[in-house]
Amino acid sequence: MLKIRSPDVGYQVPGCYMLVSRMLELSSPDVPPGELYRHLVDLTSPDVGCSQMLDARSPDVGPQVPRCWILVPRIIPHLDGLARDGMRLTQHLAAASVCSPSHAAFLTGRYPVRLGQYGGAWWAAVSGGLPTSEITFAKILQQQGYATGLIGKWHLGLNCESPTHHCHHPLNHRFDSFFGVPFTLMGDCLQAEPSEKRACLQGPLDLGAQLLLLSQLCLAAGKLTGLLGLRWVPRVLGPGCGALLLACTSRLLGVFIVHADCFLMRDYQVVQQPLRFEASTGLFLREAEAFIHRHQARPFLLLVSFLHVHVPLVTSPAFWGCSSHGAYGDVEELDWMVGRLLVALDGAGLGRRTLVYFTLDHGASLEARAGGARLGGSNSVHRGGKGMGGWEGGIRVPGLACWPGMLPAGRLVPEPTSLMDLFPTVVRLAGGWVPADREVDGRDLMPVLLRTAQAAGHNFLLHYCEARLHAVRWFNRPSCTVWKLHFATPCFDPPGSGACLGFPACACSRRCMTRHRRPLLFDLTADPGETRPLRGPMATRRRVEAAVARMLRTCRPPRGPAPRPCTQHLEPAPAALLRARTALCLRPPDPRPLTPTRPPTPNCPVLRQILACASHIQGLTSEY
Fold first, then answer.
1. Structure letter (DSSP) for residue 232
2. pLDDT given at position 178
3. For this structure, is 470 an active site residue?
4. pLDDT at position 259, please?
5. Catalytic residue among 50, 68, 99, 167
6. With b meaning 16 or more CB within 10 Å and e meaning fewer, what string describes 8-38?
7. 155 is annotated as an active-site residue
8. Could you give the CA distance from residue 461 to residue 481 in angstroms, rounded to a whole number?
9. d(Cα 31, Cα 50) in Å, to the nearest integer?
10. 291 phi and psi, to 5 degrees?
């Protein structure tokens, strides 16, 4: 396999990269997400969280946590092997707590707010997605002579001006090939719970049917009593026909969604509609193995974005019941898939010349339930979960990086790292240049992994919920301490539950948020579960707040409305910190328009109500 030497890097780089990334709903702070980096092969799993360093004695470890996180062998041996033979990023962080913004930041190395990415694409026929002006690492590697491929989930948009104008398609972002689903995995695709679209749209349709039926009864009563001189057809019976039509549409809505939005594409062609999810594992594996075989003689980047272990849980029949932990424990299938990809690399003679990185998009979903049963897993000791922009449970993710002969085996990386760091890391390894015409928030990981430079990583990381800044993390290098200030936190419903039960996720602004005039301060080094806000000594708080205030004066986050506070006593914040946060909110984002184009709203009350309902749920979920 061709070796490439970067002009700026004094070490040899792999001829191929395998980024294996997709979020699993697991929890472990010591195992950050990783993408299988060997040929640039990237494996991704969408809903796995990461929490504190776990061991076999941890009482909070959920059934979805891979055993390499808790050091129990023979359950997920291949992920265990990556952890043993590679490096573990113990403070690996997603740029967002839901998958679409997180995935966009991963591909571009930029905070989602710079991209206008706050939620996910909602319908196949709706415009919007990752802006075409953005540069992904696939584009730069393609220019460097790499073959680039994406297999699995995309969920960053499809169309612009028309249903056939695929401006947001992966191929337009410079992947040479795409085989997967353009959107996310939804309960509606399997006609199972929880439902993201059907449950919302059925409400207005059923209400319309009931109103039409009531109007028919009133008209019929007026006709029979002689109060109204109307003809039976169409004035009296017409509303009944309309009610019947709306009722049938409501009942058939699930079937329509399955066919309209749950399909499999190869490049620009739909090859299976609807997608048979029980057979998707074999399809994706064969495609990934064929990609490695086709490009084994040239450098390549392969991003494999697994459907596991996103809710609803998709498991092949061969793995049903293989785990004593139930359906979520059947995540063992994901480990088997990773093992198949590693075997394919070794069979092509690329095992020692490929960087393999495994990661997750965000933390576990705490609200995903069906019939009272919890579906979304656990984040172990970490507070919060998917959709909660500031709490560790939503953004702390596992990460593994394995590159035999280059990266030290078994080493832990304790300083904060981000999914955004993969962009500059991959670009520099391939001999490319990070774009200078825009702000790139990621940092090259190689100096951190190889310990060849001091202060090479992040001193600060910003944590957003949609467009609103909820928390800031500060890594104090001299003391090796990680501090976090929370400006706003979600109000759990019911109180004390640690989640927003009955909703797809905790809202970032539309529902009640606690806005802290005196930010909550946590020492994550000593309190990774964020259970003990620091109330003294005051000198420590002033030092942390002053450092964060200085940083906030220099950054350019987007403008957005402040979260609505709950009724509670709030301590006053230092004037310097409030001034910095005010300046932060008022400074404009990048001058380029970031809002994706959207079709005009139809001049029809029923359609407007349906679209408003869909928009409301999209704002709550921002990920499905």
1. I
2. 96
3. no
4. 82
5. 99
6. ebeeebbbbbbbbbbbbbbbbbbbbbbbbbb
7. yes
8. 14
9. 7
10. -65, -45
